[in-house]
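Usage example:
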Amino acid sequence: MKIKINISSDIITKPIMAEAILETGVLLNISQAHFDRSRGEVVADVLEDKFEMMCESLTSKGAVVKKLDTPINWDENECVECGACLSVCPTKVFSLDDEFNLQVDETKCIQCGTCVAMCPHNALSLGNNG
Amino acid sequence: MVKKTIHEINGRIKDGSVNVVTAEEMVHIVDELGADGAAKEVDVVTTGTFGAMCSSGVWLNFGHSEPPIKMQKIFLNDVEAYTGVAAVDAFIGATQLSESLEMEYGGAHVIEDLIRGKSVHLHATSHGTDCYPRKVLDTNLTLEDMNQAVMMNPRNAYQKYNAATNSTKNTLYTYMGTLLPSLGNVTYSGAGVLSPLSNDPDYTTIGTGTRIFLGGAQGYIVGEGTQHSSGGGFGTLMVQGDLKQMSSDYIRAANFTGYGTSLYVGMGVPIPVLNEQIAQATAVSDAGVTTNVLDYGIPSRDRPALRQVTYEELRSGSVEIDGNDVPTSSLSSFKKSRAIAKELKNWISKGDFFVSMPVEKVPKGISAKPMKQTEGIALVSDIMAVSVVTIGKDASVYDAARTIMDTAFNHLPVINGDNTLAGIVTAWDISKAVSKNKFDLVEDIMTRKVITANSDENVAVIARRMDQNSVSAMPVIDKNKQVIGIITSDDISKLYGRRS
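Running the assembly step on the lines above writes:
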């Protein structure tokens, strides 16, 4: 499952993710990371049954952990199913079926946001923000 | 030999015996029955396309205000429209951007809002005349309030369009969408098998007066589109239709990041099958329509073609370029194109739409000219300073400061032992070093990632590079990375006769 880890500026230089991985022995597959002066934001994959353990460990070190239930919002009213999003997505979230209907597999989304800028119809936006 | 007339076909539409198929279905019918058999069997083939058509807009007539005004400048929801035609007529173009929202909202959005029944704010100004005394006007109007709202698109329905990719190291934001670096993706547009002009490439039945599907309503072909280039297989159409009859299912505003707004237009052209030549032409498939993949990384009118592809390859999801499978994206919607061809087929089958012969056919074998430019095109070599002062990377910061004072150059290209470019150092870098009390070598304080220019580049191109990278000077280098000059924003300002 995909999770988002928010790290505040006061602990941004601490290796809390490395510590949490060593402490719990749970694998964390990082797919997206953004750090600036004010905050850190990491999107990662973790096994569903290990989520609680990882969440507890990260939280104890000061991070805020959220489940990414809907990493990407798809507005079907705005979408014209052109498929512009297909070629820019690094994880193949989007595909067209035999009838050229757009299929969105949001479980693959790593929230890179490239499709949001690509979509000519403003039909895509990142979800679970905050 | 099959020979039918428009009159006969319209007779069958009237009595309900007409046989209409879509251009996709026709591929199989011709395959099975041959062109001769298909021509006997099928009366009309419908096409459809739904994609970004920037060259679109609407003529509006607002009616006269009391007291009347001769509008000289107008804004619809803060988007400027052209009113240089009498008093209260205006043309709102799809790509005109909002004065306040810029790329977020444009003429295309005004058009979609009008179709959706929304109220649009009109702001007009004028000098005032004896016959039109009013100087300023503000009102809110819906589509119903207009006398006429005629969609008039100068260049729509490209027969086919070049596919786009990007060889540079930076992401490009274009009217062909996001183009990822290092040939990361290919984008394309066009309906291929369903493309109106590709199904009648000899323009046998297409021309002035041809009745078509436009935006969900019946419209007409005005004639050849602007930039019509039938010689190279890039024919275009100028079309018109009544906006009041159109639907937001088939007319949609769009935003291309970094480019601006555009209008997705849904159009379908019926092709009456008068003989087997026409039947054969409508049998064209995605595999039969070829286009070029152009490198949009080259900022030129003549972008190099990396390879030829068919629409079948483009639609497969990836194309091979230089041994790599590059993912493809369509910018036009094939699903909507199909829906348009089917809807047009329904209209004709039900007797709601009759086919027509053009009064004048769209011309064949002509090509669009590039622009004649009477002002010389400035190259970097024309305006760069060749007496460039450089400094070695192992020189001291003090040496750099003295060189700047002695020569009045604000930017010093830093060179390696072999005279190749290593970095750049500015008066600002030196001030920073001094403020930190750090007087080491130039190498330690220089900027290593230098934005450079080549001497044979167009000044307009490097001016944009300078702007995008927020620098005010660029070393000009040759093929061997040797510094041969420097070009500054001052040089460019002087060229254009103003200071930035």
